[in-house]
Amino acid sequence: MTDYRTINRANWDERAPAHAASPDYAVDRFLADPGYLSEVVRFDLPRLGDVAGLRGVHLQCHIGTDTVSLHRLGARMTGLDFSGASLAQARALADRTGAAVDFLEADVYDAPEVLGRGGFDLVYTGIGALCWLPDVRRWAGVVADLLRPGGRLFLREGHPMLGTLDDPRPDGTLAVAHPYFERPEPLVWDGPGTYVQTEETFRHTVSHSWNHGLGEVVTALLDAGLDLTMLAEHDSAPWDALPGATVRDAAGEWRLADRPWRLAQTYTLQARRRG
């Protein structure tokens, strides 16, 4: 298999400064308002509950806006990512906002070796993370290894049904074009842009990703020793996944302009490690 880590790391390393400078990540609002939380974390506040005092780790934390948001809610946070350039932006955000967050560089599959086993009350994985991993069962094992007995996983992710869709057709039709279930071979994308507003031009345009069916994710967690405590599907996403077919709401989420109830775009899942 082609080294997907090298390919994807180059893609993320190049985009990290552009993401930090984009209004979509709202770094300026973090700097101006010590109570500001990322839109992703604010969306799930009713489901997240009280995290004050919890020892948490944010896997695949990117530039750290969600990590710092969880810190602002009182959690003792560590962020982990494989992109050094992303972590440079995350550390700068933490330094400039006075957030006591540790950021470590490692592949997510190596997290138990880097962070230790059984020491976390909360494992948080934010939107757009699992698709970069080829093996969801291995990821579930990592989550179980990190959590103490009774510790909690909180995951919000792009829905696998959304991941199957091609770009909207001129007549608005949405067509299934990609695998719903995890496949050994990656989906190979070659696109010049990124998912935020930016005028930057990128050289590293290729990325490798995988879809993971909802049943595959749930079963992997159950088999790894976690019990599902919540699963909610949403008709919206925090990025414009289907340009030309969506509208943005007051909370900053994007949903289909025409009959949004047709499509689950994201989901929120919670699970606890068995004691």
Characterise the protein shown here.
31% of the residues lie in helices and 24% in strands. The strands form three sheets. A seven-stranded mixed β-sheet has the order 3-2-1-4-5-12-8, with helices on both faces. It has a three-stranded antiparallel β-sheet with strand order 9-11-10, with no helix packed on it. The protein has a two-stranded antiparallel sheet with strand order 6-7. It has helices at 4-21, 27-32, 39-43, 45-48, 65-72, 84-97, 111-115, 136-146, 160-163, 214-223, and strands spanning 55-59, 76-81, 102-105, 120-125, 147-158, 187-190, 206-209, 226-234, 236-237, 246-248, 254-256, 266-273. The longest helix has 18 residues, at 4-21. The protein is of the alpha/beta class and 275 residues long. It is globular, with a radius of gyration of 18 Å. Strand 4 (120-125), helix 8 (136-146) and strand 5 form a beta-alpha-beta unit. The protein starts with a helix and ends with a strand. It has a single domain, classed as Vaccinia Virus protein VP39 (Rossmann fold). Residues 58-153 form the Methyltransferase type domain. GO terms for molecular function: methyltransferase activity. Keywords: Methyltransferase, Transferase. This is Methyltransferase domain-containing protein.
Question: What would a concise description of this structure say?
Answer:
This protein is of the alpha/beta class.
Topology:
Elements lengths: L3 H18 L5 H6 L6 H5 L1 H4 L6 E5 L5 H8 L3 E6 L2 H14 L4 E4 L5 H5 L4 E6 L10 H11 E12 L1 H4 L23 E4 L15 E4 L4 H10 L2 E9 L1 E2 L8 E3 L5 E3 L9 E8 L2
Parallel strand pairs: 1-2, 1-4, 2-3, 4-5
Antiparallel strand pairs: 5-12, 6-7, 8-12, 9-11, 10-11
Helix pairs in contact: 1-6, 8-10
